[in-house]
Amino acid sequence: MEYLYAPWRSDYVTRKKIEGCVFCHIYNHPQDDEEQFVLYRDEFCFMVMNKYPYNPGHFMIIPNMHTDAIEELDEECWLRISLLARKSVKMLKEGFGAKGVNIGMNLGSSAGAGIAEHVHMHIVPRWERDTNFITTIGHTRVYSTEFGRVYKKIKNLLPEYID
Ligand SMILES: [Zn+2]
Fold first, then answer.
1. Which of 35, 42, 103, 120 is the most buried if burial means most Cβ atoms within 10 Å?
2. How are beta strands 45-49 and 38-41 bridged, if at all?
3. SS3 string of 75-144?
4. CA 3 to centroid of ligand 1, rounded, Å
5. Which residues in the chain land under pLDDT 50?
6. What count of other Cβ atoms lies within 10 Å of the Cβ of residue 88?
7. Per-residue pLDDT tens for 22-51?
8. How far is the CA of 114 from the centre of ligand 1 (A)?
9. Catalytic site residue 120?
10. CA–CA distance, 126 with 116 (Å, rounded to integer)
11. How far away, in angstroms, is 30 Cα from ligand 1 center?
12. What angle do CA 113, 44, 82 make, to 5 degrees?
C-alpha cells in the first residue's frame, strides 16, 4: 500500500535531510509548524499529522522531551498525553465522523516503532470497511490534496476539544 504515498514521500525526501531526531527537529522549529503539519503545542507535548498515514486523519501525540522510554516521562507529561488522546478521540468521533479510533504506541523498534528513539502515540481514525475507503480515494494526487485539507480541518477542530 506504500505506493499510494509515493509522491508524498518523494516530496519529503527531496527536502533537506533532517539531522538527528525528526520529532526533536519539529519541536525545535515552531516557525515550520504549517509546513510540518503541526496541530498543537503545549508545555508537555505536541501533535503532528503522520506524513505516512494509515488512514486520513492519522496524527501523533509526541512528548517534547526526547526519550525512547515512556517510563522516563514526568507523570504530568504522561497524564497530559493521555488526556489529549481522550480529547482527540472525542474530536475524531464528533467532528471528523470517525466510527472508531485506534490509539497506541509502538515502544522500541522490536515493537514496530518507525522512530524508536522518541516515543509517540498514534491516533488513527477508523471507519467501517475503511480499507476499501482508502482504495477508493487512494489515488495519489487526490490523496495529496486531501492531506492538506484534512490537516486544516483537524487543526480547526482541535481548539473546540482541547483547553
Ligand atoms: Zn527526539
1. 120
2. antiparallel
3. HHHHHHHHHHHHHHHHHHHHHCCCCEEEEECCCCHHHCCCCCCCCCEEEEEECCCHHHHHHHHCCHHHHH
4. 27
5. 1-14, 132, 136, 138-142
6. 26
7. 999 999 999 999 999 999 999 999 999 998
8. 13
9. yes
10. 24
11. 14
12. 65
Span between the terminal Cα atoms of the chain, in Å: 37
Report CA-CA distances (Å) from 54 to 51, 57, 80. Answer: 9, 9, 24
Q: Ligand 1: distance of its center to the CA of 45 in Å?
A: 12
Q: Report residue 98 as a C-alpha cell.
A: 470517525
Catalytic residue among 58, 118, 120, 122: 120
**Residues less than 5 Å from ion ligand 1, measured at CB:** 21, 23-24, 66, 118
Q: How far is the CA of 35 from the centre of ligand 1 (A)?
A: 18
In the reported structure, the alpha carbon of residue 89 is separated from the centroid of ligand 1 by a whole-number distance in angstroms of 25
What is the SS3 assignment for 24? helix
